[in-house]
């Protein structure tokens, strides 16, 4: 395959960030805050988490030193692209009372700077693709998402050191980004610190043209391929996807849901760190005078009782039905609804569950406990 | 108690021209929730324009006689005199909203519910016979019908303004009952339990504070009481597994909302438990 790949050094990475900023992008990349890698505005390589690895397990996250200087030597950040492209609190409109009724303010989105996502992983891009399917490619597209998405420049990174909760190799969504990027970096450390850069779009090529780069040699390409091979072999978790849809449908009345519910805190953390969960609630806010009213769209969760509130009460009063709803939607019904798994194998729901509930372990337990009735329809993926 | 000792009051809808009257009452409490109202500095003028502040001794000595359209009640009931007084207040209030942990669950002073008040009294006071106190601290709802309970120790300023705005606009207050984790994740705070190993009551606690403590790398203390689906025992299991002693687990559930049903049950489960 002719990858038209080039190579840049650490100064080149610095320049790449500067070029993106000079083109008007707010560069959002990995940086350390409160003991974790978060995605936030970065001005240069000094803001990146250099020489750090993340130790991730169920309900456990710690940053530990690496024995090298890698900038991208960590796995999934606390959140993926979701807070950037699909904010936790989106103002839909603001209205002010006027003499003859009310008038609407201009949308805040109009003057928001476009974002360049630096260091997005394959799982992150797979999640963005799912959001594109849900929010853009359906009959009605989401105007706010569409606007943010269209302006976003993506500098992806090949995942070189997956964490203990990673399983993108199981879901077929990593560790090497296949599409959805403008530029793709693969960090190479030996013998010199450098980045293989592959171009995914015309504007990606335009940006790279402003950065001093050398054509990649066969050694660079082989080293980058080796990063992928090694990462694939180091996934911390496995999710058996074969027949998963049928397993979950057959497990609808499994006693296992009571077991999960005894541990589940119904805190919503899994859904709010999940890069594909897209459920929201619309809230109206009015001030004391009633002269200003706002409508906001905020992240919501199927783990909250009020989420399923209809006339007369909540449809899912018990935690067992909420966990069942979530995992069945994510791993089974999503396939019927959107033709894909709702899980990208990033492992965030495992790491950030304060009760250490592991989606791969629960899926395996359900599979083991559920006699499968063959329906003649295989899983689609 | 479910009966409403409502006096027959003339039903006058609060018209725009005549502002509804607001009364603020204090029971056993620290005044922090009343101060939250006074701390609404930017909104106080708007509030004074929207309601007529008729009784608020913390703010003004000027008193307008009742009945009142809206009463905000801070504090819990701890004396026989207070039992009588809350009945009178209910009778002269068209709407009654409790503000804060004391008024909604009994507050920190409900720690007496787990102990012998006569003993406290004899130890603390030289002449305990002068003291007339109940052996339980109870929420306002244990005595009269309450129209809305606002949680928090103290209440959150924005939630208080939302309740007042909702009352004025005759709509339901937008006060969520889900966990603190929702607010933590929405504001992008890093989970203190997962990333630092800090014990945190956020998963079992109702939102409202905006995840204030976790945003400053502290664990949640449970000021807003139990969320609507509190799995207190699963969280206790996690705290024990992380090395917390059983009596400490008892104590984390026994603070400002100690007498709320889920927290009371969980703390009692760990009473007298020995460390393994």
Note the topology.
The complex is a heterodimer of chains A (381) and B (276).
Chain A: E1 6-9, H1 10-22, E2 26-33, E3 36-41, E4 52-57, E5 60-65, H2 82-85, E6 89-98, E7 101-104, E8 115-120, H3 122-135, H4 143-150, E9 153-157, H5 168-171, E10 183-188, E11 194-199, H6 202-208, E12 214-215, H7 218-232, H8 244-250, H9 256-263, H10 269-273, E13 280-286, E14 292-299, E15 309-310, E16 313-314, H11 319-338, H12 348-351, H13 359-369
Helix pairs in contact in A: 8-11, 9-11
Chain B: E1 21-26, H1 32-38, H2 41-50, E2 52-55, E3 68-74, H3 80-91, E4 93-99, H4 101-105, H5 117-124, E5 148-150, H6 157-168, H7 180-186, H8 192-196, H9 212-215, H10 232-241, H11 246-252, H12 261-269
Parallel strand pairs in B: 1-2, 1-3, 3-4, 4-5
Helix pairs in contact in B: 11-12
Q: What would you say about this model in short?
A:
Chain A has 381 residues and is α+β, with helices and mostly antiparallel strands. Chain A has helices spanning 10-22, 82-85, 122-135, 143-150, 168-171, 202-208, 218-232, 244-250, 256-263, 269-273, 319-338, 348-351, 359-369, and strands spanning 6-9, 26-33, 36-41, 52-57, 60-65, 89-98, 101-104, 115-120, 153-157, 183-188, 194-199, 214-215, 280-286, 292-299, 309-310, 313-314.
